[in-house]
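tool_call predict_complex ligand=2-acetamido-2-deoxy-beta-D-glucopyranose
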Amino acid sequence: MHKFTILDLWAFVSLLSSVFSKTLPIQRIGRYLYDSTGVRFYIKGVAFQKPGTLNPSSAEHSANGGFPEPSNFIDSLADTAACLNAIKNFKQLAINTIRVYSIDPTKNHTECMNALDEAGIYVIADTSLPLNGSINRASPSWDVSLMEQYFRQIDNLKSFPNLLAFNVGNEIVTKQENMNAAPFIKASVRETKAYLKSVNSSALVSYASTDGGGYTIDLAYYLTCGEPDTSVDLYGINVYRWCGDSNYQSSGYAAFKDNFQALSSALYMSEFGCDTAPKRLWTEVEAIYSSLMSDLWSGGSAFSYYPSLQGFGLTTTSNGSDPQTNDDFTRLAKQYSKAKGPNSPTIASAKNLSTTSTCTKTPGRVRLATDANLPPAPNPDACTCVDNTVFACQVRPDRSPAIIGELLDFACVQLGGDGIYKVGKGCDAIASRLTTRSKDPPGILSTCSPQTKLNYALSQYYRYQGSSPLSCDFYGNATIENENNKPKSGAEIEQAIAKCFQTHPPALNRTLARQPSSATSGKNSTGGTPSKTGGKQISSSREGAKISAANHDCAIQQLYITLSVVLSAYGMLIK
Ligand SMILES: *[C@@H]1O[C@H](CO)[C@@H](O)[C@H](O)[C@H]1NC(C)=O
Ligand SMILES: *[C@@H]1O[C@H](CO)[C@@H](O)[C@H](O)[C@H]1NC(C)=O
Ligand SMILES: *[C@@H]1O[C@H](CO)[C@@H](O)[C@H](O)[C@H]1NC(C)=O
Ligand SMILES: *[C@@H]1O[C@H](CO)[C@@H](O)[C@H](O)[C@H]1NC(C)=O
Ligand SMILES: *[C@@H]1O[C@H](CO)[C@@H](O)[C@H](O)[C@H]1NC(C)=O
Ligand SMILES: *[C@@H]1O[C@H](CO)[C@@H](O)[C@H](O)[C@H]1NC(C)=O
Ligand SMILES: *[C@@H]1O[C@H](CO)[C@@H](O)[C@H](O)[C@H]1NC(C)=O
Ligand SMILES: *[C@@H]1O[C@H](CO)[C@@H](O)[C@H](O)[C@H]1NC(C)=O
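tool_result ok
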């Protein structure tokens, strides 16, 4: 006899919640979005993010190559009172989507998410966070700690039926020089998609790009090309072209659109508005949701409900739970109320269109890696094994990312032979190195956490110094841990690391499903091959032009900055 189980209860509750859900499931077919009744879906959105604190002279700031980065964030979905008040305004705005940039995965978002759902509003949520919670622009890497943060964000929001898309990054590439971050973004798409699959989530995966220099087009094609497992479903561009009483042609929208005509994923304006002329008329809304643009674009998200630090708010205060709406709001509401994108093409004809595009090396400025050259998947089990068995000298647990960066710089310089001690073999083992310069594969520890990487350098240094206690002090930042059970020399350290990666081979499925390993393959754990990027550096015209609350995304992991300096030096030495 069938007994009533927790699973039945769960099924019943999810049935109930889907009955009360006002939002229909959204699917991507080729480059269009459709709801479950087969009607074309357009994002009519607004950015919903209170700005954090921006400190332009902070270490975080310079670690980002000067890109504006708040040093904290406010979780707008966790403030239920503010959320409920905003929903009243969202109804007036006639939107169906909000874009939130920073979510604290330890907080409960149930009330806000359910209220949004009842109001028919979807959510696009970033998995990245400001400071060190995002792929670093200046020296990119995709590692265990970032990946686990992304998974925690997904776990927190995945069960809400109105969660439309997880956005894996906002404006990570902001100039030609950091196009080398692109393969790391794509690797984060790969792991995010695999994880969503493993938890049966049908949420879309998106990225939000700047509308910047020559890289903008290349990046769009690169992140949407190739296998569905590695390409984004929904590509966003933050477009601030239409200002004042403009039109489709003279705003530049028409010419801009031509660049993306061959895109195979859904495309939307992940931010739009005008960031120069003070009075925003929002007449672009009519164009965006018309047949002029609907064959390519699936709507957009107006910037911004709360004012950013530079303004551009649809409300007048950034604090308090019930801010006043302003004339901007009224004008946008009027436009959005009229906007209704054409219900074409039909879902049947969209199914006929190709859903993937082959990755080709773009003829232009950047020669990006193809999928075969993506950075390896982070391997948490192998990194944990290394953490537990290899390092005699370790950083104290409470040290900030900035201190970790400085110490790594110091230790790697010593190990690399540039320092006064000229010991060791450098920091090759921890290098991410999918850069334009390097021909070498990424180091074996390239996907482990910043702490693991630092502990590698500290322990190598300590052993090369003959295990003198003074050489594991680092101004009071490091301690000796259980050293008798740890490798005693540089060579033994390398062997112990290799052993961890042999006994815990890369097994994406196992890692993602968090199931016991059944893999026994002796595959080489460093994985990946170096990319053949070799772009010329072309400066972007709009880079740094806009400072918004949205521009929260960069990691501060200063270690990567300093490390990249060291590695660049190696690159030059090798050549
Ligand atoms: C989150 O809040 C909701 C509504 O207040 C509550 O029902 C639920 O149990 C909470 N979830 C957790 C994990 O605390
Ligand atoms: C960012 O740094 C904090 C410590 O300051 C750490 O707890 C957190 O895990 C780091 N996040 C990532 C993704 O590395
Ligand atoms: C996902 O769905 C499959 C098939 O319906 C089911 O066997 C599996 O347990 C589900 N996994 C999760 C994490 O819910
Ligand atoms: C809210 O913002 C205003 C204007 O920026 C400021 O004067 C006021 O002190 C703030 N109030 C709170 C509670 O933060
Ligand atoms: C799909 O493509 C096939 C073959 O090209 C064509 O015969 C059919 O009419 C198309 N269907 C739609 C709905 O466009
Ligand atoms: C730790 O390292 C940082 C950076 O090198 C240094 O400024 C600091 O004095 C060290 N000691 C402590 C206890 O933070
Ligand atoms: C993961 O699982 C899928 C299907 O279960 C399989 O096709 C794929 O080869 C697996 N990938 C790895 C890396 O084991
Ligand atoms: C990994 O590759 C290195 C260098 O090519 C090689 O020396 C080593 O034996 C390989 N390890 C395994 C487990 O295949």
